[in-house]
Structures are given as C-alpha cells and as structure tokens.
Amino acid sequence: MRMNGMPGAGVLLLALLAGCGSEVGDAGRTTVADAQVSGPIGDAGLRGHALWDSWYDLAELGYSDEEYFVSGLAQSDSGGEPAPYTTRIIVRRPLDPARFNGTVLLDWVNVTAQFENAVDTLESHQLFHRDGYAYVHVSAQAAGLCCLPLLTPKVWDPQRYADISHPGDEYAFDMFSQIAKALKFPGAVDAMAGLPVRAVLAMGQSQSASRLYRYVTQVQAQAGVIDGFLIHSGGGKTYDPPPAVPVIQLFSEFEADTEPLAEIQNYRGWEIAGAAHQNYWVGLHQVVGQAGRAAASAPKLPASADEELHQLTGNYGEQVNPGSLVCIVAGTQFPMRYAVNAAIHHLDRWVKTGTPPPRGPRYAFDEGGALARDGDGNGLGGIRYPMMEVPVARYASDLCGLGGITVPFNELQLQLRYPSFRDYQCRMQAATETSVMQGFLLPEDAVELLSRVEGARNRWLVQGADDCGR
Asked: What is the predicted pLDDT for the residue at 319?
C-alpha cells in the first residue's frame, strides 16, 4: 500500500485494516525481490497494441487497458541458479480513483493450448467492472510467450516483444510473486497509477489452478505478497499445513471424486452441480469476441458489443440453440460465471474483513464412487443453482470431453413438467431467492438470471396467471 505523506496516518490505517482481517502488509516483511516495471508500452511494435488486450473499448466503461513489462532476477523452484527474466502484464483498472475497491486480481493465464487464455477474467469481467476491481493478465509461463502457435507475443509481434525473455517455468512462481509485490508496493513505475492497493488476490483455472495450488502449498507461506487465492477446477484437495491466507477452490463435475474436502482454517471448497470443466460463456468470448482482435488486429468495438455478445453466451439452456446440440469446443451452457463471481466476492470480503464464505454441500456419489445423477441425467448434490433445481435442460458434463454438452428439454417435456410459463417462472424466482440467501448467487447476477427467465416465455403455449401465489 502506498502512503503519500502523513506517515503517522499510514501506520494508523494499517493497524485498523489489520484489525478487520485485512492481509495488508509491508514490503519489508517479504523475502520476495523487487522487480522493475516499465511502460505503459502503448502503440509500439508492428501491430500497435498488446496481444490479448480488450477487444472492446474499456475506456467507455471507465477502465484502463495498458500493457507493462516486468523484469527481474527470479529464483528457481527446483534449486537451479537465479535467472533474469522479462515478461509482461496487462493492467485494467478504474480510471476514476473513487471507483477502485482496493483489490487487484492477478489472473495466472492458462497456457494449455500453447497460447494464453484468461479464463477467470472472461468469466467475471462483468463483476470486475461493476464492483471496481482492478484485474491483471499475468504472463507467468513460458509457453504463453513463445513460440507456437502464432498467438504468442514473441511470434505475433517480434518487434514489440523483442525484450521478452522467460527462463522457464521453474522460475514462474518467483516471477509471479515479484509481479504481485510490484503492484502492491510500486517502485519508480506504478502500474496502478497511484491507486492504493488493499489486497492482491490470485486466480487461475484448470492448468493455472494446479499451478496456484502448488504456489499456495509450497510458496505462499514464505513469499507472503498475495492475500487470497481462487483455485478454479484444478489442484489437489490436501492442505497440510492449512493455507496461510484465504483460499476458495471451485470444482466442476469433471473433477468430482469422493476424496473429502478439507475442513480447515482459511479454506473453502465449493462443488458446483451442473458445471463442466469449460463452458460456452468462456468459449464464445474467446472465439466471437477476442479472436478478431488477436488474429487480425481488428479495431476495438464499442463496449456495447460485449453486452450484445452476452445475449448469446448467457443462454443457460432456456432457449434451444441448434449450434450447441452437438459436441463443440466451447462446451456446456451451465453458467459457471455465477459461482466464480460469488467466490471472488466472498474471497475479497474474507481477506478484508475476516468474514468467511458459506460452506457448500458435497456432490452425491453412487455405490461405485461415480457422481450420482437424477432421472434427467443431471448431477446430484453440490451447490445447486436455480437451473439445477428447476431444470429446463440436461447439463451433461460427462460427455464431449472437457466441455460437456447442454441438451434442452423439448417442448413436450417442458409443458409436462411446468404446465405454464408462470409456473416455471415462479419456481425459478423461489430458487433464485434461495441461492442469494445461501450466498452462492450475487444479487446482481440474480437480476440478470431472472431477466433471462422472463425471456423464455416463447417456450410455453400457456402463459398462466401473473401471481406466484404469495
């Protein structure tokens, strides 16, 4: 945290924050080395913009979209000699300081496809913008920077990224720590533009989640520069000793097994019924949204283009989309973003105030140890969002590889189960209220969900009375 002037006031503020559960510390309490930040990089290079910058105009939403280079000397996690590095980050932060909520989210971007995929940023960008988070695309791993396929910085724009140099993934943990420290305790170049940082949270999905799990269990206790972690669909379930800072771990049905979830300090595991390992919302944001900008340097679109895309990507199966009735890379239409949003909200509050998130129920398993399913083929147990309690589709996470598939009920199935649209709508309203009260659905997301329910009127021949019987 930066304290401009009035050192006594700064000490007092740190004491107050510590008293309410904040993990705010100071740069002198960590062994993590300083890194040098340079930038913003601006329109340098052959393309004139960063690879994986926003495909729509964030300035219209009151946010920056700036790339910085980060350099330093990183320690190996396997005992090798220290090595110099230069990587890059893309920082999105509120332009109006009054909108900043004090939290920076570091997305350890996924590189399974050999290019960078900021899954949790795509899941929760609506939350970030409405609640004033800063969020940072972190190029932590070598595969995301060079050299195959085309969509890696060193190949995509060799002029802009000539200085990028990654010594290998054994150095990634220390690089990540140094980036977190540089954002929390800035040096000569402040990528946060003077915004006071109260908390730095790390998030990552799948392969990135497995890396963060190792970070939490092997690095965090000594590094101490990150205040909380969202580990999404990856990593183990054993934390011995318990995490040094709050951790929320999300599981999809793809990761379902009978191994117990830890019931320890600073940990919550949430098993999300209906969720597959990847999903339609993220997939279409990649293909329909990001692809044109990344592949062809297409001009940024108005911010409204992202909201328009949500009309398609937000479909949870309430509308029949012929294109999703076969196995597609994008995956199931189950809205995992609601769980990610709630997890980030609770993690931020947990770090800042000490208030822990709710505990969720476990998945149900059959006698053979497989995830139990109901007559529709939907998973049993776990945290159950309204579309699982009042289903209009089968969320088959066990089909089509990592993505699963959504199979909407046909019209006859709908009419037999919900005789009128109002019957369906009233049940969804009740289930939505329950999810909000349980703490697993944010109120703003509840409003969005119920607006989509309203849009499903066309699926029913009988509309029903306008009274839910209350």
From this structure: 87
In a domain, residue 212? The reply is: yes
Token readout for 107 is: 């997305």
Is 349 among the domain residues?
Answer: yes
- 160 and 292 in a single domain? The answer is no
Task: Write down the residue that tokens 């990610």 correspond to.
Answer: 340
For residue 37, the cross-strand partners are 70
DSSP 159: T
Residue owning tokens 């089968």: 394
Q: Is the pTM of this model over 0.90?
A: yes
Quote the longest CA-to-CA distance of the chain: 73
Sheet containing 103-108: give its strands across. 36-38, 66-74, 83-92, 134-138, 103-108, 199-205, 228-232, 247-251, 267-271
Q: CA-CA distance, 309 to 238, in Å (whole number)?
A: 39
Q: Is residue 263 part of a domain?
A: no
Q: How many CB atoms lie within 10 A of CB 429?
A: 18
Please tell me the distance from the alpha carbon of residue 255 to that of residue 234, in angstroms, as a whole number: 8
Q: What is the DSSP letter of 66?
A: E
Q: Which residues contact 102 (CB under 8 A, 6 or more apart)?
A: 196, 197, 198, 199, 352
Distances (CA, A) of 452 to 333, 448, 455: 13, 7, 5
Angle of helix 207-218 versus helix 172-184 axis, rounded to 10: 80
Q: What burial letters (b/e) apply to 306-330, b meaning 16+ CB within 10 Å?
A: beebbeebbbbbbbbeeebeeebeb
Q: Calculate what percentage of the chain has a pLDDT beyond 70.
A: 93
Domain count, the chain: 2
Over 50: is that where the pLDDT of 104 sits? yes
Q: Which residues, in sequence order, are CB contacts of 172 under 8 Å at separation 6+?
A: 77, 140, 141, 142, 211
DSSP strand pairing (134-138 vs 103-108): parallel
Residue pair 204/117 in contact (Cβ under 8 Å)? The answer is no
Contact 213/231 with Cβ under 8 angstroms?
A: yes
Amino acid, res. 190: D
Name the percent of the chain lying above pLDDT 90: 80
Q: Taking residues 366-392, what's their average pLDDT? A: 96
DSSP 136: E
The domain of 326 spans 280-459
